[in-house]
Design a protein that fits this description.
alpha/beta, Rossmann fold, seven-stranded mixed beta sheet, WH-like_DNA-bd_sf, COMT_C, 18 helices
Length: 397
């Protein structure tokens, strides 16, 4: 097959993608990435690396301008539209020249197709960023990290090339010139706090499976009495996991407790009957309502904290646990090698914001043992290709 045939084949795949299994889809994407790296010159690769943050900035500006809301409304009426038709649908006094500059990015990012000069057609991806989509909140929150990321080189030049290990004295405080922890600072920023709360409801990983889809809940988490606490969701956000859990196991006996900070609790809408909300800081003595539960669930909590502070969280959980209680930790586990760039980026986000880290299975085992737990099993859903795992631990005997 000559190069012309290869190009024609790739175009055919792009225009009419076949139905693929998840492993096939990921293998195909990895092949494209390998091909791109081999074909690029060092200069082209360098430009791709250093210009990458510009796309997220353009995307956030478009979200803020409600550009995607306007394009969605237009697309419902016609397949193609002009720049001026788009501007006319947008809120407030919008400069057409600015919208044009934003659209240059968005067309190159395959959110829109350029039919001609200043003429566009919306592509499916553009609908993912309307105001109603949680992905728009994800863009708002994650793009706010750019300031901290940009400060990392000077942070390390000034403080030495050591991984930060204190959540109250790390890159976040350096970049924002604040003594506040990231979460405390976030509470002073209503827009970003709201975006963060919404983002945390998004599913993690490449599978719709929930932790309770892969864990034998009915056999492992049975309680002796309906009055017993079945599950405490520590740092459970707005209750999305507990709501899904209750929906999947409506007849399972035992109370469900959501434990969260006041700023998050205040934003929670009405929860289903049977879910009790406790406003609490996980770094303080656990509240009586959480004592003696059958299981304590922490999802995406420990990766927010370096060992120094994460050990305090687990010490407080231990204080509330009964001898036969179970600790369930849902996290993204880094592989020991060949770490995908997405996971490497997630690790940098943890480092920048919280002086924390994404951990390998070995690091979690060592950390849990040091905190007085025994890791008894690592649960993985069938067909799961990413690093999402459920760690089951018990108190060390």
């Amino acid at each position: 097959m000559n190069i012309t045939e290869v190009i024609a084949s790739l175009k055919s795949i792009a225009n009419s993608p076949a139905s693929l299994r998840e492993d096939e889809r990921k293998e195909l994407l990895a092949s494209f990435d390998t091909l791109r790296v081999k074909l690029e010159t060092p200069f082209e690769s360098s430009l791709r690396f250093v210009f990458a943050p510009h796309q997220s900035v353009a995307l956030e500006i478009a979200v803020d301008m409600k550009l995607f809301d306007a394009s969605a409304a237009l697309s419902a009426e016609k397949k193609e539209f002009t720049l001026h038709e788009l501007v006319a649908r947008m809120e407030g006094d919008v400069d057409p020249s600015l919208v044009l500059r934003i659209m240059r990015f968005l067309t190159s990012m395959a959110l829109f197709f350029e039919v001609g000069p200043q003429q566009y057609a919306a592509l499916p991806l553009s609908h993912a960023y309307t105001t109603a989509s949680p992905l728009s909140s994800c863009v708002v929150h994650m793009t706010s990290q750019n300031k901290i990321m940009a400060a990392l080189p000077s942070y390390f030049r000034e403080r030495g090339y050591l991984s930060p290990d204190d959540a109250y004295n790390g890159p976040f405080q350096y970049a924002h010139q604040t003594p506040l922890h990231c979460f405390a600072w976030l509470a002073t920023q209503p827009r970003l706090q709201d975006a963060f709360n919404i983002m945390m409801t998004l599913p993690r990983g490449d599978t719709p499976l929930k932790w309770f889809d892969i864990y034998p809940v009915t056999t492992k988490l049975a309680v002796a009495s309906p009055d017993d606490v079945l599950l405490v969701d520590v740092g459970g956000g707005v209750g999305h996991d507990l709501i899904a859990f209750k929906s999947s196991f409506p007849d399972l006996e035992g109370g469900l407790v959501l434990q969260e900070l006041p700023v998050v609790v205040d934003s929670i809408p009405r929860l289903p009957t049977g879910i009790h909300v406790v406003s609490h800081d996980m770094f303080t003595t656990p509240p009586p309502a959480t004592f003696g539960a059958r299981a304590y669930f922490l999802s995406n909590v420990l990766h927010d904290w370096p060992d120094k502070q994460a050990s305090i969280i687990l010490a407080n959980v231990k204080e509330a646990m009964a001898p036969d209680s179970v600790l369930l930790v849902s996290e993204n586990i880094l592989p020991d090698w060949k770490v995908p760039i997405f996971n490497a980026s997630a690790d940098f986000v943890m480092m920048a914001n919280f002086a924390a880290l994404e951990r390998t299975e070995g690091q979690y085992r060592e950390f849990l043992e040091g905190a007085g737990f025994e890791l008894v099993e690592v649960w993985k859903g069938e067909g799961v290709m990413d690093g999402r795992r459920l760690l089951e631990a018990v108190l060390k005997r």
